[in-house]
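Archive transcription. Copying these from loose printouts into the bound notebook so they stop getting lost. Printout 1 of 2:
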Amino acid sequence: MIKILFKLAIFLVAFNAVGQNSLEAIIKNAEDKMPLLGANAVVSGTDIGATANIDGEVTLTKIPNGKQTIVFSFVGFASEEITLDFPRATQDTLEIFLEPGGEEMEEVIIQSTRSRRSIADLPTRVEVISGEELTEKGNMKPGDIRMLLNETTGIQTQQTSAISGNSSIRIQGLDGKYTQLLKDGYPLYSGFSGGLSLLQIVPLDLQQVEVIKGSSSTLYGGGAIAGLVNLISKTPGEERELNFMLNATSALGLDLSGFYADTYGKLGTTVFASYNLGSPYDPADIGLTAIPEFNRYTINPRVFYEFSENTKLDVGVNTTVEERTGGNIAYLEGEDVEDPFFERNNTARTTLQSGFEHSWNDDNRFNLKNSFSFFDREIQTGDYIFAGNQFASYNEASVVLGGDKMEWIGGLNLWVDSFEQDILTDAPVVDYEHLTYGAFVQNNWRATDWFQLESGLRTDYQNEYGWFVLPRISAMFTISDAITTRIGGGMGYKTPSVFTEDAERLQFRNVMPIDVSTTQAENSIGGNFDINYRTELFETIEFTSNTLFFYTKIDKPIILENTAEGVFEYLQPNGFVESRGIEANLKFGYKDFKLFTGYTYADVDRTENGNTFEMPLVSKHRLNNVLMYEQHEKLKIGLEGYYFSPQQLSDGATGQEYWIFGLMMEKLWEDFSIFLNFENFTDTRQTRFDSIYTGSISNPQFRDIYAPVDGFVVNGGIKLFL
């Protein structure tokens, strides 16, 4: 009997071994035949998968008998599927060649550079948030893009209003006015319209976000001294896309968004719509809102028409309407409050944009685009009202010529920006009308396999501040398959504007118009140097690192000063601002686990008349840590931890250091997913360890906001893919 059982056990083991097969493959780039470190191979419909090592080698084990479909994929490359019958007749190693140009968009046009070269081949350092990372950030904050940007190394979204939530983007510690915010390459958010921009951009229709740090003035103008952020919208693909998201929060917030994209022969369309609701929320129980009451509606239809394979047109309109009120929470909840404090923002934003492209071949094309943006905003606090309307228009014609070795980009643009204030008081109005004429040229030269050079020159004429000549140069050195470096720098400028973070904090009350005759444009010079390295540790762990060293100097910065009792003026003392530091990003990958760690060191000082001061609201040391567990298209779990070092405050005090932790989960099925996010679950709030205002609740004098004020918030919802 024992012998029979022993033989049966041997048979079962042998049978099981026959039914558990293996497959070895080498995954390479179809263009240069180089191995793709980090490429993935998955047996479709199973949990069986593996990641390629530094030589592109990947091994799949425990593959069941029968016909199986193997999916090979890599970021920025089109996926490849093959069907094999297991057990195979031979055990040869397969060679898989992936073509550039996948959904993650690494190999398509990066609009911030206008080149068709891959991100990895560009001398300009471009950081892209796309694909699953963009989806994960959208789950955490579906109503706006603040979290998406704030959790990026080197970027801090600075809250400028304690009660409205208004925020700005700070890159490498520099004020938000030095960052240019684009949508599909159109500079729509600036001046008065930039005030609430981060709060009014919903991420569901975004395909990717491109970030360039440091002076980026050649292609997009002088405002990008600290860098630019380009938000890229989704476009119609080969298959119809219909997505919906419903999200609710423990702070009684609600987000409902929908996105539709399809093609009908030569015609394509996308439609994005969202409704976002916020309820007054006071987790500190101090009587003031940490999250204001708001209602926002957004609708963005676009039409795409393909006259031929080489000639395309797209036209769209984006409309956002919002009512936002923060302040005394009892007053907002309908109670009878004597002399309540509140800040109400009513905004209406409408943008019309169109783009035309004609290509002679894959390398040569002509682009024409224009946008018209209308923005109305009324700010009311107590009996004080500031209101006005802004019109902005951007028009550009550009051409791309050349080939793989040499590429030229040139163009002309006209930027119109005007503001007209409603006359409600006897105070001087801050009206302006700015016209900027620009011409630019850029050359991308692939000199050798190991050296590439990008050089550019922009010349602008601004109707009030005259001529500006802005050179820029970047170079990339491919030292080995594992190591590349980039070095570059350029010049920029920023014309003075009354609409800055400092004036936003005052609701523009008693802020005097800028005296053009006594001020000059701010000029800058800066440079970056970065090192990229990738390898495989212990033959099992993917490892990539990027270290960036940066420096920017801004001459004669415009400063808002209290020059008389309750009167504020923009002055230009003799001095400069310097930002210097390091960004380090590390990524580890092991099977279904990924660990991202980022560190930012930003030392930002202002020198005035020989005296040097530390710039306020700059976290000199920051840590970004994200641990992800992901089963492909089935389950995602992420744990985040962010550290902010003490910050210098405007009143001379020093803010406390703090950590923020978050936990997100998403379970995916074929047609829908359910997500749950525990944001700031340690309830880190400035009101727990510091004050946010002085004076009475009827007339609060707000201090700098350097830490979260909304605390622990749970949000969750459902996404439908129809």
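Printout 2 of 2:
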Amino acid sequence: MNRYPLWKNLLIGIVLLWGLIYTLPNFYGEVPAVQVSSGKATLKLDASATMARVEESLKAAGIAHDGLFADLTSVRARFRDTDTQLKAKDAIEKAFNPDAADPSYVVALNLLSASPQWLTSIHALPMYLGLDLRGGVHFLLQVDMKGAVTKRLDATAGDLRTLLRDKNVRHAGIGREGAAVVIKFRDTETQARARSVISAANNDLQLVEGQDGADYKLTASLTPLAQKTIQEFAIRQNISTLHNRINELGVAEPVIQQQGLDRIVVQLPGVQDVAKAKDILGRTATLEIRLVDDTPGGLEAALQGNVPPGTELYTERGGNPLLVKKQVVLTGERLTDAQPGFDGQTHEAAVHLTLDSAGARIFKDITRENINKRMAILLIEKGKGEVVTAPVIRSEIGGGRVQISGRMTSEEATDTALLLRAGSLAAPMEIIEERTIGPSLGAENISKGFHSTLWGFVAIAIFMCAYYMLFGLVSVLALASNLLLLVALLSLLQATLTLPGIAAIALTLGMAIDANVLINERIREELRNGSTPQAAIHAGYDRAFDTILDSNVTTLIAGIALLVFGSGPVRGFAVVHCLGILTSMFSAILVSRGLVNLIYGKKRKLEKLAIGQVWKPGI
């Protein structure tokens, strides 16, 4: 009656062993490390080759390491002390970034768990500690407000070109000059007509008529109110973009807020992958579409140092030089979505872009007017442009669906799509300050949180053993397994533990023991009603299950509500709370009953249970 089949006992044992293994890393400390990751979106890090280069650079510098570790995005070297770590960083930096002005890799200080290699190999890593317990990384970003205005003027030049073409107004050239867009005309009548058309379509521009030699011109500049609006939008858009990018990092409870007129503070609590965080935040990658200059002799002259006016020299992914016009046809502002996929004809990896209505119209016009010409798609990152692909325009492309393909792997397509999907920055940003900050409440909070949970557990254990005797001890063991599984889950998910999280663990202990109290009291009730000990155990667990399930489900609903609608510390509390409910159900029902079955299951003639006083004479 009270025996589990062998498979169920094995299942419980395997789950508890898994919990123990994934809890172990939290008992090891951390050691200094140096991390190497890609510094450019178009540069894919080869783990094996990078590990070999790191080891070679350390060997050449006579620096010993305690292990090399690699994942999909980085390579990390572990060291015994901080002095060796600093020396290693300098040696690796020189080996990987010979040109300090244009670094291809991010080499950063980091911390790694001191867990044995066999634990790390199965992704058994310690939990992160939040800003209030451990500290984190602090970044101060400077937003280029002039860059935001310049970016809008470049887009405005393209919009005006399209507007005048749609209204059949001929012009002699449109281009940005400084902080204004200059439009040239052959006669005053066309100039006046263009002014009327632009004034009716755009209220953010102030127009000034003038003359440039034989040509007449209109100088369009943004009004002061429009410039202020653009700058305010740039801050809001960049903060939103940073939120999206940090979400891709999986950092819990980040702090992102404006400081002053043109700065943004970013605090990442408990983050270990400092290099990856710096890389993601420091990227200012935006998409630009330009036409390739195929003028005969132009590329040859550029290779000899005589770059034709209005063009720039780039290099394609294959290493071939490419002469690209400076005029930007389309920017990432018109991008609404980017997803990795495959080319329907060649089945090569590709990135599928979706443009907004204005971008779709501009792209359709450009492709219609430049059939059989090449169009370069550039990724502008940290002030430097790289050609992602330069396809030939075979036909007019409408509908706002654009595909980037050509010599890229599936991983590169995914990375490029992720970066573009995270949102284009409304203005360039630069990290002007980076530091590791101490915990806001200090190590004292860790000590107090740990001791409060420990003494709460001890108090519960003493009460349960005194009141329910052997069944109380079983309940305490089940409670310990609950705590073990909860910590293992948090470690596996790489969650960030904060003070509210510690509070949720303490609450979970109280709720988990409540289920065992219900079971024990139900068994006592069955004994008082005259049931045999074996029947009382069976009925006690079965009949208490519905009550336990109902109470935990209702509590889980409240926890999910906190998780969905809460933010910051509230969500941190809710995550631990919801996981704790799931682990408490497992430990209170399966683990405790498995232990009771092992103790009493084989005893056919059982006369008494060690469950304390049941308040009935003779039992």
